[in-house]
Structures are given as C-alpha cells and as structure tokens.
DNA sequence: CTGAAAGCGCTTACAG
DNA sequence: CTGAAAGCGCTTACAG
C-alpha cells in the first residue's frame, strides 16, 4: 500500500511536509499543498490511522458506553452520536454492556480505555465508587447522558425526569383518574436514578392532587416490553385494577398495553396508559407519552465532548494566544447539566375513566 | 502511562518476552510467563492498541457497514456482531450509512478501509460495480448478511426471502383471502434484491393459487413504519381495498395497521395484515409474521469472518502443520450462502375475510 | 526458551 | 515555509 514516503517522493517534498499539507496545517505554502494533494490523490493515499495515532499521541476515537443498543432510546442516541463523531473524523468505539458484568469490568478498568480513546461518553451507565475514581484517574475528557450516570467534572446532557413524570401523571389526573399505577425500573438496572426521579415526579403529582401514593400500585420491573407486561399482569392479579397506568418508558407502556389486552381490558376505555419517550412505534400504537429528544441529546453530548478534544489537537501556542475566548465559556461547564425539554403528546391510549 | 519497557524491567526480561508472554504465545516458559503476568498486573499495564497494531500489521478491527442502526433488524444484528467480536478481542468500527451518500463514498473508497480494518461485514448494503471492484482490490476477508449485498468470494448469511414471502402469502390464501396487497421496498433503497425476492415469493404464491398478481395491489415504499403507512393510505385511496396486506417487513406492516385504523378499518376483521421479521414489538401489536433470526445471522456472520482472521494471526508454520483440517471445510466456503430458517408466527392480525 | 535490533508509518520539536 | 532526525510503543525475524 502506498505510504507517506511515496507521496513525498512524487511531490518532491519531505514526509513532514506531506503530513502537514494533508492535515491542513497553516504552515504550508499554497503551491506545495496543491502538489502534495495531487500526489496523494494520484496514489490513492490514505494515512495509516495506527501510525498516525501512535506518532501523534491521539487516538481520534471516542468510547461510547451504553447499557443496550437495541432499545429505542439508546439506538437513537448512538445513531446521532456516530453521525456527529464521523463528521469530525472521530471513530466510535462501541461498548454495549448488555448486562454483561464481565464486559463492564473490562471497559471500566482504566487501563483498557487509556491509550485507546481520547474521550468517553457514558449513556445511562451508573458507575460505582471504585469505577468512578479509576476513571477520574485517567484524566480523560468525558460527557454523560441521562441522570444517574454523572461523573464529577464531566458535563451532563439529560432531560428533567421528575418534570416529565409529573407531566405524564398530571395528564392522567386532569382526565379525572385517581387510581393511577406506576411501572418503575428495576433498581439494579441502568442508572437507577432515572427510575427514582420519575417515580418521585409521579408521587409528587399525586400528592399535589391530594392523593396518597399507594405502594400496591407501584411496581418495579425491567425497562422493557416484557417487564411492563409482567408487571401489569401482576398488578391485575392483585385485584381492583387501576384506571390508569403511568409507565416510566414507552417500551414498558407497550408491554402494559399487551398485558391489558390479554386480560380482556380495553385501552383507554377500561384503563388508560401513558409512557415517556415517544418511541418510533408509539404513534402506531396510539400511545400517549411525554416525548424526549433522544437524537438531540446524543448530538449535543457528542459536540460537547469533541470541543475540548479539538483544543488538545491544536498546537499549544495557538491556544495560548487567545485566552479571551476561553473566558467566554462558563467557568465550569460541567457544573450545570444541560436539560433538554420534554413535551406531552396525547394520543389514543388515555381518556377519562369510566363513570362508575 | 506504563509501557512495555516498565513491565520488562520489573519482570527482569526483554520487551520481546513480555510481548510474547502477554499474548499467550507458546514459546515462553511457565515461570517467565508467571513473572511477566504478575509484573503487568502490578503495574496495571495495558498494551497500546495503536503501537501493537502498527508493529503487528493487524488492526484487530472489523468494519461493519449497515444502512441504518435504529431499525429493528440492523440493531439486532449489530448487537450480536458486537458481542461476538468483543469476545474475540476485535473492535467494531461502525459505519452507519443512514442514507448518506457522502459517507458511503468514504467508506467504500478502498483506501479508507485499508490499513484500518482486518475484515469487512456488509449488512444489506448493495455495492455498485465500481465499489465492488475497488473492494475486491483490497483483498480483505469479508462476509455479507442479507441477499443483494453479495460480493464474489465472500461468504453470505441470509434467509430465503422468496420462501419467507411465500409462507406469509400462503397463510393469507389459506385463510381464504383472494385480494391480497403487497407492500414492497423502495427499489432505490437498501439491497433491493431483498424486496424483489420477497415480491417474487408473493407473486408465485398467488399464481400457484390461480390468482393473477394485480399491479394495483402492489406498492413500493420505504422499509419503515411511515412507508407502510403512506402506501396503505394510498392503497385505500384507490378504492376497493384488499382484504389482506402482506408487508415486506414488520415495520411496514405496523405502518399499515396504523393507516388502516386511521381509516376506520379494523384489523383483522376488515383487513388482515402480515409482515416478515418478528420485530420485538410485533407481539405487542399482535402482528402475525414470518420470523427471521436476526441475532443469529449476526453471530454466525461474525464467526465466519473471524475464522480466517485468526488464521492470519497464527504463525505460518502452525497452519501448515495441519493441512488436513483445512480440507475438512468446503472447498469454497463462499460458493453457497448460509441460509437460516424462518417460521410462520400467527397472532391476531390475520383472520379469514368477512363473508360478503 | 530468550534477547538485541530493526522496523511498522507516521508526527513533532528543532533548526534553518 | 520546509527538512533531517528522533521518537511514538509495540512486534518480528534472526540469532543463539
């Protein structure tokens, strides 16, 4: 395969100049740059990423850690992140935990990330104290998405989970419901803070309406269709079913709809159902929900992560020359999470309770 | 960060020996290996992938090209592939085309893949002749998933699309349907051979039942929920609706269900609907379908791809020593595609037509 | 079984 | 603006 020496020879310059010209560094004359580009084009030259990264000391790779990839939220986030990273010439190294403890250890062992990536994105991945300090020791830039996966010093992009849950619950209250069940996440799963915040939003909305939250209407299960389905089946088995169900995510809400249907109950005539997400298929199912901007969270987090990386790539003098620009940023960009808005989407799965 | 020299010093051996011991090469004494492993553990040493790859001449990375990542089939395939690759120490470099022509050019420009990956997996990505020859020139091992993305000399894992379509159509015929519409894929999208084969299966099944396929019941649209929805709306607008719809994939079938409901038609009482896939949510929707093993196709394709890669990593003498083992494989593993089975799953979206 | 030395293909000070 | 040379951190023949 053609290498940088070949291009240098054909262009009649040194390899150092080829390197500079190809990377668009300003310290190359226009004429030289043209010759180098032409030579590279003619030889179909492409830089060897490994050599470049080894010599340059940057990997041009970002690790993205997700608990799952096939669930709607995470798939959508990864798609948006990948898009943004590729645009900037960064590779995406995907770590899909998938509930695998072994992989988790590998990923979060500091030395495995070190030398391998320039930055880390944690999506709804809660770190234990030991993992947290190990990661901090790496001194890598990072960003998190979703509550519960915060890392001190790292920016965080998320929605306001409590507010989203309150919006969903209030919608049911406004329709006249009083017996409202909640399907929450498994406390061992994902960044459980997300579940907890959504539950708190649910409980607060109830209390504001003068209703005491009932433990018997509050179930913990997996953040999946099957989880929602199982929990709903259990709820129905307890007798005296609720008139409405607020599920902590749309996939659980879909499971609830299935379980209700299997039990011969109609949605929304017998039981109303609402979730959070605005999953692709929620429209098909007529599921009312509180939508969250998954792709936008991914894009934004990727940009926030790339920003300091670009800085690192620049020659130090250039950065030092414009200290004023740095000052325009907030003193500590990680201090405040970036909260993206959510929105109530009313479809066919919510209606007033039957008068009886 | 600790490097190989540090480990060598601590263990009292050369870097070459450290390298060999850590990679598990057989030419290291047990005692030495123990000492090296202990030293590496103590120093929390992790090899620098870039240095290792540059020196070793292998990237330990596989390129996976998918047209989308958020659609069920592709997400499921990627999850399974990533799992298999990680187990073998390979990284997954994800190329999500997402309809982006620019990215497509970058990925399929040979020099960009070269030096960057050891192997290529194409998922439902149809190559044009120029791309095909460019890729062949790289002489990289590869594998494809899905029909329509075949590359000469590369193994292919897929289902029998015609057979799956016939199964779905026959199910409708067996129920007594005669006016059966088909929602097919956009000919410009994905590996269009998939759509074409499914359409042929549909047409053949009709003909075997003595029905002449009607162009007015055969629509082309996108392989998405919205595509299925739009096509169905158009179908209904033409008047004299079919009594059943066979959609080329479950997501289109879901869109069809939505459009039917929006038009005031009930599924299956007024119109039956069936798809292909067995999407996660098909159970929730009660959608009848012909299931295909997406994860298994991904796992199998990954294994097939890794097999020759492992061979390349081995020292040549070891391979030569056991020529008999090579002979046990089919002479040309790429000559015959690996066909995985599909299965009819009857749920609530298909029923006999109304007697009228 | 082990080591010394060359080399993988780039980038980066340094000097001019 | 450009080049000569060192170096990034490994692996691989080669020799013993």
Automatic annotation (TrEMBL), chains A, B:
Limits of the HTH lacI-type domain: 2-56
Signal peptide: none
PROSITE patterns: HTH_LACI_1 (PS00356), HTH_LACI_2 (PS50932)
Alphabetized GO MF terms: DNA binding
Pfam families: LacI, Peripla_BP_3
Keyword terms, alphabetized: DNA-binding, Transcription, Transcription regulation
Protein name per the record: LacI family DNA-binding transcriptional regulator
Organism encoding this protein: Micromonospora rubida
């Amino acid at each position: 395969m053609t290498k940088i020496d070949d291009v240098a020879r054909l262009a009649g310059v040194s390899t150092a100049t080829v390197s500079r010209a190809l990377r668009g560094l300003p310290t190359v004359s226009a004429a030289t740059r043209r010759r180098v580009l032409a030579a590279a084009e003619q030889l179909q030259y492409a830089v060897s990423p490994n050599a470049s990264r080894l010599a340059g000391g940057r990997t041009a790779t970002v690790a993205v850690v997700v608990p799952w990839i096939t669930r709607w939220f995470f798939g959508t986030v990864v798609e948006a992140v990948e898009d943004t990273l590729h645009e900037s010439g960064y590779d995406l190294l995907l770590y899909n935990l998938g509930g695998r403890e072994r992989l988790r250890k590998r990923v979060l062992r500091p030395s495995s990330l070190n030398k391998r990536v320039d930055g880390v994105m944690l999506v709804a991945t809660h770190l234990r104290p030991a993992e947290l300090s190990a990661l901090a020791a790496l001194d890598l830039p990072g960003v998190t998405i979703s509550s519960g996966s915060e890392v001190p010093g790292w920016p965080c992009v998320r929605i306001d989970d409590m507010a989203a849950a309150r919006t969903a619950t209030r919608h049911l209250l406004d329709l006249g419901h009083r017996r409202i069940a909640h399907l929450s996440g498994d406390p061992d799963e994902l960044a459980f803070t997300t579940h907890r915040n959504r539950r708190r939003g649910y409980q607060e909305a109830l209390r504001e309406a003068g209703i005491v939250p009932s433990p018997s209407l509050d179930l913990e299960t997996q953040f999946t269709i099957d989880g929602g389905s199982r929990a709903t089946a259990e709820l129905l088995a307890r007798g005296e079913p609720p008139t409405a169900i607020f599920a902590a995510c749309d996939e659980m809400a879909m499971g609830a709809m299935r379980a209700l249907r299997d039990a011969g109950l109609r949605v929304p005539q017998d039981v109303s159902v609402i979730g959070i997400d605005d999953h692709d298929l929620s429209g098909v199912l007529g599921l009312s929900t509180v939508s969250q901007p998954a792709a936008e969270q991914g894009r934004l987090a990727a940009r926030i992560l790339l920003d300091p990386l670009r800085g690192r790539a620049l020659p130090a003098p250039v950065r030092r020359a414009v200290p004023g620009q740095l000052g325009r940023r907030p003193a500590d960009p990680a201090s405040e999470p970036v909260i993206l808005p959510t929105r109530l989407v009313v479809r066919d799965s919510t209606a007033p309770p039957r008068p009886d």
